[in-house]
Fold:
Amino acid sequence: MALSTARLPAEDPLVARALPEIAKLASDFWHKAPDYMARETMKQKALTIQKRRLRIGSKATAPPKPAMKDHEIVSYYAISFFNARREALHEFRQIVSVDGKEEAGASSAREQLRTILSSKDDRRKQALVDDFEKANLTVAATDFGQLILLFTRANLQKYNFESRPKEQVGADRALVIAFKQNTGGEALRITEPGRQVNQPLSGQMWVRESDYQPLRITLTSKHRDEGEEIRDEARVDYAALAAGGVFLPASIVYRRFVKDKLVAENIAEYSDWQPVNAK
Structure:
């Protein structure tokens, strides 16, 4: 599909120049990201209903009050694919520990993930996804690491784009491009107890001015549930690896608000990126 089919503001030549280069980098990510894995430390908090305790008197009839609960999951992490659907990337994790309780030694978890990623057994890959969703608190927002794939050549026509004032991201001068989804399948997948919610997207991306390498992508999505407004926000920061020049997630932040009140937060940091097929 020709890039001319993307809905670009004709008066915004900056965006028109940047998008083809961003699409090339997104394609490069799709090809290279599955070759790497990392250690992920995810700190979560969520508003949960505490279990009832046996009480007497007036407190016996008072409903339990929700309270913020903290949670930490350490895993080995990769962005890869199911063999039956190789065109779509997903996040896979082999859990090391939950709230400090070790489920597998770090080296054992790393090698288990390597073995599963290299296999053709999609059942074992799905088991990794299921195990991670079970270990989460009430909301699991997944597949954020590959947000850059929103902007492959085939996807550009699904968004409206508009430039914003340039900003500094760390040591890099960045172009800021706002986007809003106008058509196509939604990419924000939120797993809640008993269902999944797919939501239309809007947000911004920061790309390095010199070569258009993605530095940061933010998303905002809103929907209503039983009359309440729910807002999901996400931010992914990318960093380049020296080996091969591939850029990969450095950190991911996800927050959910209900009527502007924070009810869930995931903050993930990535370290020790290494080849999946390391000798």
Q: What stands out?
A: Confidence is low (pLDDT under 50) at residues 1-10.
